[in-house]
Amino acid sequence: MPAPGRRLRLQAFIKGENIISNGSVSNVFISIRAFPVEDSSGITRNRFASTQNRILVNGTFDWEPIEIVLPSFPEEVEELTVFLVMSGKTFGKVYFDNVTLSVE
After folding, report:
1. Containing domain of residue 92, as a range?
2. Taking a C-beta distance cutoff of 8 angstroms, is the pair 25, 76 a contact?
3. Is 50 within 8 Å of 30 (Cβ atoms)?
4. Largest CB tally within 10 Å, which of 86, 88, 94, 95?
């Protein structure tokens, strides 16, 4: 695991074909989640970062970058999960490529 306080950057490229969203919230996004979701003091800060509700993807488009930063890696992390998401209210095809998680 990264040392506490280090920054994590999740980067990827997305490409879409005929994407139609049937909702007003983000339909395609990337996220980082540290587990457990809270530390032994009950603190949840800096344990989740996401592009959810920051972008809305529709139509057909070529490769575009997408990025999210977890500014300060928390203490007491046992597992780190990366999510590449196309929500259930979305139709079409989404491609993810060159997914990179880096510690800065």
Report:
1. 8-103
2. no
3. yes
4. 86
| pLDDT tens digits, one per residue of 51-104 | 988 888 889 999 999 999 999 999 999 999 999 999 888 899 999 999 999 999
DSSP category for residue 90 = E
Cβ(50)–Cβ(68) below 8 Å: yes
Residue 26, CB half-sphere, CA atoms under 13 Å: how many? 13
Provide Rg for the chain, Cα atoms: 15
Q: Which two tokens stand for residue 54?
A: 């920051």
- In a domain? residue 1: no
Whether residue 65 is contained in a domain is answered as: yes
Answer yes or no: is 2 within a domain.
Answer: no
Other Cβ atoms closer than 10 A to 30? 22
Name the pTM for this structure. 0.87
Give 11-51 pLDDT, tens digit per residue: 999 999 999 887 766 689 999 999 999 889 998 888 999 99
